[in-house]
Amino acid sequence: MEKLYTAVVTATGGRKGEVKSDDGIIDMKLALPASLGGQGESTNPEQLFATGYAACFQSALLVVAGNHKERLNPESTVTAHVDLNKNDDGAFGLAVKLRVDLKGVDNEKAKQMVDEAHQICPYSVGTRGNINVELEVV
After folding, report:
1. pLDDT tens, 71-104?
2. 88/67 Cα distance (integer angstroms)
3. Cα separation, 71 vs 66, whole angstroms
4. What is the Cα–Cα distance from 40 to 112, expressed in whole angstroms?
5. Which end of the chain has less neighbouring CB within 10 Å, N or C?
């Protein structure tokens, strides 16, 4: 495997702390969402994970579209829903739903492209077998 890039981010204070990248681009406070008893005034780990997954999956779709000699409509979207769940044994886990809208692509072709993107997206590869990921094509 060839390493292409390494992101370095340091967290302090957990869910009520902050995160900073080594290059200074990320410098954010974290907060508990209101639904978990927080004020919700800052981002949280699940939002950051959803951000990365949605952007990465969209890039994978662009690769797949290129392989099919197609051009995606610039208005096409990937919306990531990331759930924080508590298991029966008290452990916490994540679940993901990716809602993909490939504007102007027929439903069968869109499903094929989404399935192919799911095979090459680094987030999909990294979560496979560990996190339930649901794919929805709209």
Report:
1. 999 999 999 999 999 999 999 999 999 999 999 9
2. 43
3. 7
4. 37
5. N
Give me the mean pLDDT over the 57-81 stretch: 96
Other Cβ atoms closer than 10 A to 51:
13
Task: Identify the burial level of 90 via C-beta atoms within 10 angstroms of its C-beta, where 0-12 means exposed, 13-18 middle and 19 or more buried.
Answer: exposed
How far apart are alpha carbons 47 and 24 in whole angstroms? 19
Give the largest Cα separation in the chain, rounded: 48
Residue type, 97: K
Residues 21 and 8 sit within 8 Å (Cβ to Cβ): yes
Mean pLDDT of 37-61: 96
**Where do the DSSP E strands lie in 27-70?**
27-29
> Which tokens hold the place of 21?
């990248």
Q: Which residues have C-beta within 8 Å of that of residue 30, sequence separation ≥ 6?
A: 11, 13, 14, 15, 16, 17, 18, 19, 42, 43, 44, 45
* DSSP label of 112: H
Q: Does residue 40 carry a pLDDT above 90?
A: no
CA–CA distance, 66 with 63 (Å, rounded to integer): 5
Please give the single-letter amino acid code of residue 89: D
